[in-house]
Write a structure and sequence with these properties.
The chain is of the alpha+beta class. It has one domain: q2cbj1_9rhob like domain (Jelly Rolls, Sandwich), CATH 2.60.120. Helix content is about 25%, strand content about 20%. It has helices spanning about 5-10, 20-30, 40-55, 60-70, 70-75, 85-90, 95-105, 240-250; strands spanning about 30-35, 105-115, 125, 140-150, 160, 185-190, 195-200, 205-210, 220-230. The strands form two sheets. Strands 1-7-4-9-2 form a five-stranded antiparallel β-sheet. Strands 3-8-5-6 form a four-stranded antiparallel β-sheet, with no helix packed on it. The two termini are about 20 Å apart.
Length: about 290
Amino acid sequence: MGNNRFDAAAGSGTAVPELGAADIKQFDEDGYLVLPGFLPAPLVERTKAEVDHWVDSGLRERSIASAVSPEAHGIPPLMELEMEAHGRLLVHPPLLAVLAQLLGPAFAFHHLHSDRRPPGSPGKDWHHDYEQEPQGERTHVMVHALHYLGGLNASVGGLALLPGSHRQTAEKTARAHLGTVEVPGEVFIGELQPGSTVLIHSALFHTRRAAPRGESRERYMVDSSYVQGGVRWPPAKPYWRHMLGRARELGLAGDRWPDLFAEHHFTEYRPAGPASGARQGPEAGA
C-alpha cells in the first residue's frame, strides 16, 4: 500500500483510494489486503463509544438471542447499523470505493457485527465465513472488512490468515479441529495501529489468536460484510428484510450506491445446518 494513499483517503473522509494492480492481484491470489490506519480517528472514537454501549447495555446479547431464536425474541430493539457511527462505518466512502474495485460496481451489504472482547478472552478456531448453501464453486466474491478500532498488538492478540485457502471448496469449520495453532503457510498479523482494516475474501480461512496470559486488554472489533452482485446470497439474519429496510429508511447508501441495501441480492433465510457450520448469531469473529 505504497505512498500512504489509504491513510490520506481515510483522513479526508471523501477521497477515493485507488488500488494498484499489485493490490488487486494480492487479493485475488492470497485473499486479503491490509489497510493500516484506514479509518479516521474521530470515526474510530465514536464507534468505540457505541461498542461500549452495545456491549454494556445488553443490546449485543439481545441481538444474538434474536438471531438464534427469532420466534422467541423477535426483532431486536436496536441493530448495529442504527447507531450513528456504525452506520457511517459500514458506508465509509473510502471503504466502498475500495470494495467497488474488488467486487465491481454491483455489490450489496450483507451484515454488520460489533464486539468488545474482554481481557483474557480465548481465540477462535480456524474457520471461514463464506455464505453458500451448500458450499461449492467460488464464482462470486464475498468480503469481510475487519475493522480493528484499537489496533492489534501483543496485549489484544492477533489475526492469522491462510493465503490462497479461499479458492478451496470447504465447509466453514473444516479446519476447526486445528484450534488456533500455527499452520504451514499462514500469515500472522500481530501489529496494527488503531483504526486499521483488514479486507479478507470471506472464504479465506482465518483464526483469532488470544493474547498471552496476563498481558491482555480489551479487543475492539467491528466487521462489515459485502457480497458481489450476480447471484443470490443466503442472508445472515432471520430479520434481514427489516435490517435492509431500516438502512434504506436511514438513507445510509445515499445516491451513490442505490443497490447497496436491495433485497434482490438474497434468498430466503434458513438456519445453516451443523455440516456447514451453523451460524452463531452476531459475533465479530476475528
